[in-house]
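[Meeting: bench + compute handoff]

Bench side (C.D.) handed over the final construct sequence. Compute side (W.E.) agreed to return the predicted structure before the next meeting so the bench team could plan truncations. Sequence as handed over:
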Amino acid sequence: MILNKVVARFKDGTLMKGTTADFFPTKKEFHLTLMSGEIVQIDVERLKALFFVKDLEGNKDHKEEYSDVVPGGGRKVRIEFNDGETVIGFSQGYSPNRQGFFVIPADRKSNNERFFVVVTATNKVTFI
């Protein structure tokens, strides 16, 4: 079983860090094993996005840059979230009719390997 290191960012501004082995973009829920070892069930619709990360600690000093090209990453997209945050990356699977879509960051030095954006947490999604 492959464990993915993830940071779950919720629409209410809270976040949880841990690992998951059962997240699928078509499922409504998944399990997150927190750093404390506690296992919690997450309702995807409560999420803003689920970030699949290289390291759970991250790098708070890293300033995101969005100029990298990701071969095979799909179309470049700007995501404006309901809370005002904007991110840029590449996506092959955006559809407003789906629960969400995966994005590969346009910053290869980012701690994020990829992230799953929940469509209802977005204000605007634009191909650029």
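W.E. noted at the follow-up: The two ends are 37 Å apart (CA to CA). C.D. will use this when planning the next construct.
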